[in-house]
Design brief:
The protein has a single domain (16-146), classed as Lumazine/riboflavin synthase (Rossmann fold), CATH 3.40.50.960. It contains 5 helices and 6 strands. It has helices spanning 26-42, 59-66, 86-105, 119-125, 133-150; strands at residues 16-22, 47-53, 72-80, 109-116, 126-128, 131-132. Strand 5 and strand 6 (131-132) form a beta hairpin. The protein is globular and about 45 Å long.
């Protein structure tokens, strides 16, 4: 199975970003955070602040509170399927909530929340064979923040 990768060519100079990280599944989310930090450094971001919340469910509220103070928000979390439907509720709430914050505030909120069936799949997407989705989420936030600046936001 092939996977598509994006070529990033973004400039974060002059932009401020907040990274909101879920502590639940911290072995994964800390790796996503490392990827996001690397992306922001590579792109020349100067103003970066990091915030922690208990889990992915809490990411939307944190993003909403930070949206007015930053050019972009990078939301990082990891939800791994278990034996109950809890996975579905948390994933849906995080995705819908983060989208709602972005649409209501006009501040880009990138979705760096892994929603995997297994821990192995999460590791593969947090710096493993499938790259680092934290890096990708940060680059997406940069691109969309820059888009907002050039499109009149």
């Amino acid at each position: 199975m092939s996977r598509e990768t994006l070529n990033w060519s973004v400039d974060a100079k002059g932009l401020k970003f907040a990274i909101v990280v879920a502590r639940f599944n911290s072995g994964i989310t800390e790796k996503l955070l490392e990827g996001a930090r690397q992306a922001l450094t590579t792109a020349g971001a100067g103003g970066v602040a990091e915030f922690y919340v208990p889990g992915a469910f809490e990411l939307p509220l944190a993003a909403q509170k930070l949206a007015k103070s930053y050019d972009g928000i990078i939301a990082l979390g990891a939800v791994i399927r278990g034996e109950t439907p809890h996975f579905d509720y948390v994933c849906d709430a995080a995705a819908r909530g983060l989208l709602q914050v972005s649409l209501e505030t006009g501040t880009p909120v990138s979705f760096g929340v892994l929603t995997t069936d297994t821990l192995e799949q999460a590791h593969a997407r947090a710096g493993g064979e499938h790259g680092n989705k934290g890096y990708d989420a940060a680059m997406t936030a940069i691109e969309m923040a820059r888009f907002g600046k050039t499109s009149g936001k």
